[in-house]
Design brief:
heterodimer, A: alpha+beta, SH3 type barrels, 2 helices, B: alpha/beta, Rossmann fold, 2 domains, two-stranded antiparallel ribbon, 24 helices
């Protein structure tokens, strides 16, 4: 099933399916390693709609809650 | 081939600075790129007989220039030279994107596979030979921290080649990277190290927040401990044993009461020179920046440099992101604030990392009013601390309270919302001692070069104004505000005037006024909030523009007037 990044549970892994956003955001996320087809694992999500930290390959990035809402992930549940 | 200039380029957090510090000698300079506020570091590399200029280009993900730092990076590439592309070997895939972009440019490239030692315990195997074939330029595994492979890198610089790759689209590049990775990289099981466990703990909210508080608390105590020990056991004894006798002789020679004695030595306190209170050019003017402030600057930047190189600051930014959003900022704004605690000038410069005007405005207002610099903190701790820790808590508590209140209000009344955070969280890496000290040295010499002349000028200025009775004149004009509203004696006007020049000197000037504890607390707080020093102000004008700065100034005046009055009313 497809969920957005904020719905991914800490420790859970999924595959990036789609990123909705302008060219600027999409290409910035891509260059940081987040693009369709990549495996992502949620590391943590912060209180009150705070940033979401993810692990892709060997690195971690933090994205804001609103941004995370527009990143869609395919997971097996 | 003759190499005219070397550019170190790579993504942020790939250990560029460590490689840079391995390649260069002691002579390192921080400069601003002409016409911008983007800083970069440059040094010299000895290559055979010649010294070659080597530039640590700001970290960039693409050559598309999506922000100011990236724009500078792009312009530097166009100026030519030779590129050492620093690639994080533990993160090959993402890093190669920039590499492929560089290979399309008209400039020779060598690839340095940094963090090579990290690949082993992370279970990453890279076939360097094959990667070299695929890219068509030399690829050298190095480890910036230990210096391994650096010699080999330098040896192979002449083999750098201009590839003139065909320009391809982003997607084509990612496809090509996919094929390269498949051919050269194998991943096996990785062992978690202690540092990696700490990484996870410090980014999860439940454990991360207590860890952050613990780290900040420890940092604060270590800074104080080192600073105070240096002052108490090194600088004060040195001044008392070596400098005092010389000054006393000079005092006798000049004769108390003469104009020159007044300017150079200042007033004698109980027949002797008191470095803290005499206020002469050669007594307090020299003593204050070197013996009282330098030790704190030293310990602050030592700890900050350590935390920076460890990779802690981005985690702190993520943890405080939520709180900062309430104040109209995003997590990364914690960086200018922390830098501002060292000196407001680099703090003000760092405001440029914030992208929107609204955010810059809020950050500038909050910092200029509520973040005292280390020099000022040192003076306040020295002066107010004598009266009791409780009073220190009142001064700094008021400043913190102001920070929160102003942020909440500005966030509410200014249109728009703060943009969202998007940052990379680098793995923890044990800082390289020489790199930490190199950076510390640059910052200290920067402080001495900029602050020392200003402090001396400030002390000189005050003494001349005193002699010319200008201070008395202003004291008379502003007496109602000072005495009625704030409960301060008229003479405090001198400190307020000098505060435009140097805040630390200004706080020091409250010392000889024999203030009550309440007056001292009010005076120190007002000095912190009413106006940043002139150097910070100049930078802020450049960063924000005149129009916004007029608004910031208005806020400062309102805050200073009301905070002084409130403290005067409520403090017993």
């Amino acid at each position: 099933m497809t969920i957005d990044l904020t719905q991914l549970q800490p420790g859970e892994t999924g595959i990036v399916k789609e990123i909705q956003g302008g060219h600027g955001l999409v290409s910035k996320l891509q260059s940081m390693g987040l693009r369709p087809g990549k495996k992502v694992t949620k590391v943590s999500s912060h209180f009150w709609h705070g940033p979401q930290t993810l692990e892709i390959d060997n690195m971690q990035i933090a994205v804001g809650f609103g941004m995370a809402k527009r990143i869609f992930i395919e997971v097996k549940r | 081939m003759k190499i005219s200039k070397i550019l170190l380029m790579g993504n942020p957090n790939v250990g560029k600075s460590a490689v840079f510090s391995r390649l260069t000698g002691a002579q390192v300079m921080i400069s601003n790129y002409p016409g911008t506020t983007v800083e970069f570091t440059q040094g010299k590399l000895k290559l055979g007989e010649e010294d070659v200029l080597i530039v640590d280009v700001p970290g960039t993900y693409t050559l598309e220039a999506t922000c100011k730092a990236e724009d500078v990076a792009c312009r530097m590439v166009q100026e030519g030279g030779l590129i050492i592309n620093i690639v994080d070997a533990t993160n090959l895939e993402r890093n190669l994107h920039l590499t492929l972009q560089l290979l399309e440019k008209d400039i020779p490239v060598v690839v340095a596979l940094n963090m090579w030692d990290d690949t082993k315990h992370r279970g990453i195997y890279i076939d360097v030979k094959k990667l070299e074939e695929q890219l068509g330029v030399p690829v050298v595994p190095v480890c910036g921290l230990s210096g391994e492979g650096i010699k080999e890198l330098v040896r192979r610089l002449p083999e750098a080649e201009v590839k003139h790759s065909v320009v391809s689209s982003d997607n084509q590049k990612w496809e090509r990277i996919g094929r390269i990775i498949e051919g050269v990289q194998k991943l096996t099981h990785r062992h978690h190290t202690l540092l990696e466990i700490l990484e996870d703990l410090s980014i999860k909210p439940l454990t991360g927040l207590p860890i952050a508080l613990g780290i900040l608390y420890c940092a604060f105590w270590v800074i104080r401990f080192i600073g105070e020990s240096l002052i108490g056991y090194l600088f004060v004894p040195l001044f008392d044993k070596l400098w005092l006798p010389v000054m006393m002789k000079l005092s006798v020679f000049l004769g108390e009461g003469t104009f020159l004695h007044h300017i150079l030595i200042g007033n004698l306190i109980n027949g002797s020179i008191d470095f803290g209170q005499s206020f002469g050019f050669l007594t307090t003017g020299i003593f204050m920046p070197i013996a009282m402030i330098l030790p704190y600057i030293f310990s602050f930047y030592l700890i900050l440099g350590f935390l920076e190189d460890l990779g802690y600051l981005p985690r702190l930014a993520v943890l405080v992101d939520n709180l900062m959003h309430r104040l109209g900022l995003h997590g990364y704004a914690i960086i200018p604030f922390i830098l501002g605690l060292g000196c407001n000038v680099p703090g003000a410069l760092a405001i440029r990392v914030l992208e929107e005007r609204r955010e810059k405005f809020i950050a500038a207002t909050l910092m200029a009013i509520s973040i005292p610099c280390m020099a000022q903190i040192a003076m306040i701790v020295g002066l107010v601390g004598q009266r009791g820790v409780k009073y220190l808590a009142i001064v700094f508590g008021t400043l913190f309270f102001l920070l929160i209140i102003k942020g909440l209000i500005l966030n509410r009344i200014l249109k728009g919302a703060s943009p969202e955070i998007l940052i990379e969280i680098p793995p923890y890496r044990m800082p390289q001692i020489t790199a930490v000290f190199k950076k510390l040295w640059m910052r200290l010499s920067g402080f001495l070069k900029e602050a020392l002349p200003f402090v001396l000028l400030g002390v000189f200025f005050v003494n001349v104004l005193h002699a010319l009775k200008v201070i008395d004149f202003f004291a008379y004009i502003f007496a109602p505000i000072l005495t009625k509203l704030w409960g301060l004696p008229q003479e405090a006007i001198g400190a307020l005037m000098v505060g435009f020049l140097r805040k630390d000197v200004a706080v020091g000037m409250l010392g000889p006024l024999n203030l009550t504890t309440k007056q001292l607390v009010i005076g120190s707080t007002i000095l912190a909030v009413y106006f940043p020093c002139i150097a910070t102000y100049a930078v802020l004008i450049r960063e924000l523009g005149v129009k916004d700065m007029v608004k910031v100034t208005a806020i400062m005046i309102i805050v200073a007037l009301s905070v002084g009055a409130l403290l005067n009313f409520f403090l017993p």
